[in-house]
């Protein structure tokens, strides 16, 4: 009997690993396509060569060889070309170094927590596979959207510029090569940045699935020791994610803030002329960088909110169990199982209002939980609630919990910087 069970378990694990292999092959093919696969010496050399050429070489050559501030008309001078190229190259450099370090130190399976996915429930595994596909689709859609806009702008700039745009040798051949190189450079740099952001979102979603699966322990008969072990495992994963991505998130936040303030300073000068032809590329760059940062901060905040909702759920579970115990035993913990359906049936609510709340509050709703108090004493439940209250899990950045209060503080700081800068440029007080 034990051999049959072991055979079935190994068979399921092999099927699961086979399916994971198919998912990872598609992901690895994408990494090879963007030339960030460093699984061998030859691929690492190719990856670094492509990075140096597209992220550093092409922007530098574009700035010096295609400078037409003295020969082009007002719509083709590109006064914001330098901040755009510097911003994209800095973010591409940050993303490339992060991906290279993670791939070299952890490997793809370990980095994405796929090596431990078999230990989780079928719902968690299925949800993670679906999210992997959704994340790839999100990456394709976002990158291709910005790529299409940038391509249209570059084609317009080269075609309408005509002989005003510096060219070397044949006009059409020179413009075609330059346009293709600039478009490829833009695509490469934005793809690197959005790739890291989407990977961060994917890993955070796995922890959300684990938290939702963990919340079900309060709806069935479970020992406090098992609850504590599961929660410690989740906290450990959240600390690992925070440690791996803390530098990327913090530097991205600082660089996005600095780049946007610099762009605003250049656009609000008294001598600046802003229109869609001059500042269109700057606006597109700003939207792409802010979108990537928004993906990271939203994912981290959702994980933290779900993790902290566990504390409220545990407190509600403890309250229901305590009240139910007092109703039946005058304050003593019962020694036999007590059915909770008589007092707190599953699905009953404290209020008659049936309006649904926010999707982020699924773990902290107004529904009662089934009570299994006969195996868990009052002292153990109270100790568990105290532990959860004093050890709140969540995503952190160098010790600061990335929750809604943290985002409000960041927004207040950036708003203060914005008003200060506008006061210095256009006189808002």
UniProtKB/TrEMBL annotation:
The chain crosses the membrane at residues 46-66, 86-103, 138-159, 192-211, 245-267, 279-297, 405-422. InterPro entries: DUF3537 (IPR021924). It holds the Pfam family DUF3537. Keywords: Membrane, Transmembrane, Transmembrane helix. The keyword RNA-binding does not apply. This is Uncharacterized protein LOC107414539. It comes from Ziziphus jujuba. The lineage of its organism: Eukaryota, Viridiplantae, Streptophyta, Embryophyta, Tracheophyta. The gene is LOC107414539.
């Amino acid at each position: 009997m034990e051999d049959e069970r072991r055979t079935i378990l190994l068979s399921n694990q092999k099927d699961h690993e086979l399916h994971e292999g198919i998912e990872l092959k598609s992901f690895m093919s994408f990494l090879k396509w963007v030339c960030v696969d460093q699984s061998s010496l030859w691929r690492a050399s190719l990856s670094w060569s492509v990075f140096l050429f597209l992220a550093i070489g092409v922007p530098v050559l574009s700035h010096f060889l295609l400078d037409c501030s003295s020969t082009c008309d007002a719509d083709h001078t590109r006064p914001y070309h330098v901040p755009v190229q510097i911003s994209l190259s800095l973010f591409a450099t940050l993303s490339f170094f992060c991906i290279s370090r993670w791939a070299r130190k952890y490997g793809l399976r370990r980095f994405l927590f796929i090596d431990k996915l078999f230990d989780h429930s079928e719902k968690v595994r299925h949800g993670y596979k679906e999210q992997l596909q959704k994340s790839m689709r999100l990456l394709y859609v976002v990158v291709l959207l910005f790529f299409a806009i940038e391509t249209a702008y570059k084609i317009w700039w080269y075609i309408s510029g005509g002989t005003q745009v510096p060219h070397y040798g044949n006009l059409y051949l020179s413009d075609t090569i330059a346009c293709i190189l600039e478009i490829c450079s833009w695509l490469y740099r934005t793809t690197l940045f959005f790739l890291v952001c989407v990977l961060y979102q994917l890993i955070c979603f796995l922890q959300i699935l684990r938290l939702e699966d963990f919340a079900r322990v309060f709806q069935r008969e479970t020992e406090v020791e098992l609850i504590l072990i599961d929660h410690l495992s989740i906290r450990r994963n959240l600390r690992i994610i925070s440690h791996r991505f803390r530098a990327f998130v913090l530097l991205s936040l600082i660089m996005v803030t600095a780049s946007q303030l610099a762009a605003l300073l250049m656009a609000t000068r008294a001598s600046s002329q802003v229109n869609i032809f001059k500042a269109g590329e700057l606006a597109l760059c700003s939207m792409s960088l802010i979108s990537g940062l928004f993906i990271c901060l939203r994912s981290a905040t959702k994980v933290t909110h779900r993790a902290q909702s566990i504390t409220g759920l545990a407190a509600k579970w403890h309250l229901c169990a305590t009240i139910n115990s007092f109703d039946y035993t005058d304050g003593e913990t019962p020694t036999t199982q007590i059915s909770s359906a008589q007092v707190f049936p599953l699905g009953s609510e404290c209020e008659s209002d049936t309006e649904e709340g926010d999707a982020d509050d699924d773990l902290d709703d107004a529904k009662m939980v089934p009570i299994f108090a006969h195996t868990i004493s009052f002292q153990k439940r109270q100790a568990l609630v105290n532990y959860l209250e004093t050890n709140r899990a969540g995503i952190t950045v160098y010790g600061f919990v990335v929750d809604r209060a943290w985002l409000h503080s960041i927004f207040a700081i950036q708003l203060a910087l914005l008003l200060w800068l506008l006061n210095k440029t256009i006189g808002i007080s």
